[in-house]
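Try this one yourself first.
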């Protein structure tokens, strides 16, 4: 049964890699959680990180948790599609699972920071870059400051980074505004599995 997004329509475009990026606090985790419920045929890339697991995070599900030495070895072996340092920790996207998914005909989605998205653009020019944006700058400020659990200096730094990330919007192929999680997930699903025009 088709839901209007191309899923179940019987029409299969060639699979592609979609890169989702957006500032801290924009709701990427919530949108991706909704997308998982809507689009089970999508391969969700699991990043490698050197940061410690947070409560409830499962190794191999949320991230692959490694130490700094192992991460450096993986970089040296060329195992990453992209890798970057963010907030004092290293993050990387394993190349092999993405390549396997695309080769099998399954669209692949990865969520990474701006500098990583730029690396993917160079490594895989055919990848689709999507920015998840807040309804407004004031809305994002409210989300970040409303947590009330972090040092003001940390929040200020996140806002500074967020401003830089939003300024990079012209580098992205598509922008999805997260003013409603379900609507944003539906828009993202359509971009991930929608038809791809012939080159």
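Now uncover the answer:
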């Amino acid at each position: 049964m088709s839901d209007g997004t191309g899923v179940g329509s019987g029409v299969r475009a060639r699979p592609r890699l979609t890169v989702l990026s957006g500032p801290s606090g924009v709701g990427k985790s919530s949108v991706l959680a909704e997308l998982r419920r809507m689009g089970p045929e999508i391969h969700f890339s699991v990043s490698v990180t050197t940061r410690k697991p947070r409560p409830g995070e499962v190794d191999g599900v949320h991230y692959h948790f490694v130490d700094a030495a192992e991460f450096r070895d993986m970089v040296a072996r060329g195992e990453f599609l992209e890798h970057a340092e963010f907030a004092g920790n290293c993050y990387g996207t394993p190349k092999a699972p993405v390549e396997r998914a695309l080769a099998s005909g399954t669209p692949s989605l990865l969520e990474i920071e701006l500098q990583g998205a730029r690396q993917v653009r160079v490594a895989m020019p055919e990848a689709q870059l999507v920015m998840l944006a807040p309804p407004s700058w004031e809305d994002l400020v409210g989300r970040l400051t409303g947590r009330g659990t972090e040092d003001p200096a940390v929040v200020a730094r996140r806002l500074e980074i967020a401003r830089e990330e939003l300024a990079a919007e012209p580098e992205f192929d598509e922008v999805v505004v997260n003013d409603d999680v379900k609507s944003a997930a539906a828009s993202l699903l359509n971009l991930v599995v929608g038809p791809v025009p012939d080159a």
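Discussion: Confidence is low (pLDDT under 50) at residues 1-12. The two ends are 29 Å apart (CA to CA).
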